[in-house]
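re the bet — no i am not wrong, look at it urself. input seq straight from the record:
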Amino acid sequence: MRNGGSRLTDEPKTRVSVRIYGQDYTIVGTESPAHIRLVAAFVDDKMHEFSERNPVLDVPKLAVLTAVNIANEYLKLKEEYDRLAAKLRREKGGEDDD
C-alpha cells in the first residue's frame, strides 16, 4: 500500500471468496475474513444502489461510478477526521493551562 499503509509482505495473508455484483472473486489481504467480507458486501451494496439509479450503465461504468463515489465518501470522512484530530490536539495542548 502507498501513503504509509502496511507492507503486505510482513503480515500473513488471508484468502476469502466473495461475490460482488454477481461475480466471484478471491480477495487476498491481511485483514480478517470477516472484514474482507464486510468490504465486499459494502461494494456489492453500493454497486446495486447505483445500478438502481442508473439502470442503463454497463458493468465497467457502474464499477467506476461506484469507485468514484466510495472515494468521495472516504475523502470527506478523512477530511473530517483530520479536522477533528487537529481540534483534539489543540484542545489537549491547552489542558496544561488548567
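see?? The chain has a mean pLDDT of 90. told u. also Helices lie at 33-53, 59-95. so pay up
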